[in-house]
Specification:
This protein is an alpha+beta fold. Helices cover 54% and strands 18% of the residues. It contains six helices and three strands, in the order H-H-E-E-H-H-H-H-E. It has a three-stranded antiparallel sheet, covered by helices on one side. A hairpin with a 6-residue loop joins strand 1 and strand 2. The longest helix is centred in the first third of the chain and has 39 residues. The radius of gyration is 34 Å and the shape is rod-shaped. The N and C termini lie far apart (89 Å).
Length: 171
């Protein structure tokens, strides 16, 4: 004879406790999973923000070709503090603005003749810098501007338009 229906609906106190514990565990696991996914999402967003590359500065004279350039090959420079170095390759772009073909040729010839002095100037400037000075984007921009101004002071016929680091590693 089958047991009465009322007896099948009765739940023992141990079974009630087990159901509550199981419900609590499921709730805790669900909350943990949501928090884990949320923290992963926040982490990914922070990483994407940090990896966001700054937009390049706008080019002033769009459409114009770059001027003649002098290249200082990869060199290791001692910084002004012990055990810190910079390895850099530098390109110096000469300005052609306002120069006729003959003047431009004379300017390029003068700039090439002054290369040993320009290289010495770069060495002197680097040796006066600290790792902190050259390890930030702002520091690199300041160094490029200082080099541009000082190289211009060495030249008689024309001007340096821009100093460009084609490679740069500071240690």
């Amino acid at each position: 004879m089958p047991p009465p229906v009322a007896a099948a609906q009765q739940v023992s106190p141990e079974e009630k406790r087990a159901r509550r514990v199981l419900t609590s565990l499921i709730t805790i696991n669900s909350i943990s999973a949501v928090l884990l996914l949320a923290s992963i999402g926040v982490g990914v967003m922070l990483m994407m923000t940090k990896l966001n590359v700054r937009a390049p500065k706008p080019v002033e004279d769009k459409g114009k070709m770059p001027g003649p350039a002098m290249v200082l090959t990869d060199q290791v420079y001692n910084l002004g503090e012990m055990n810190h170095y910079v390895k850099a390759a530098i390109t110096v772009e000469l300005s052609t603005e306002g120069l006729e073909e003959k003047e431009l040729g004379d300017f390029v010839t003068e700039a090439k003749a002054r290369m040993p002095f320009i290289e010495d100037l770069v060495i002197s400037e680097m040796s006066g810098k600290t790792f902190r000075d050259v390890s930030t984007p702002e520091g690199k921009e300041q160094l490029k501007e200082e080099l541009r101004v000082k190289i211009n002071a060495l030249l008689d016929r024309g001007q340096v338009k821009e100093v460009i680091f084609t490679s740069f590693a500071a240690q």
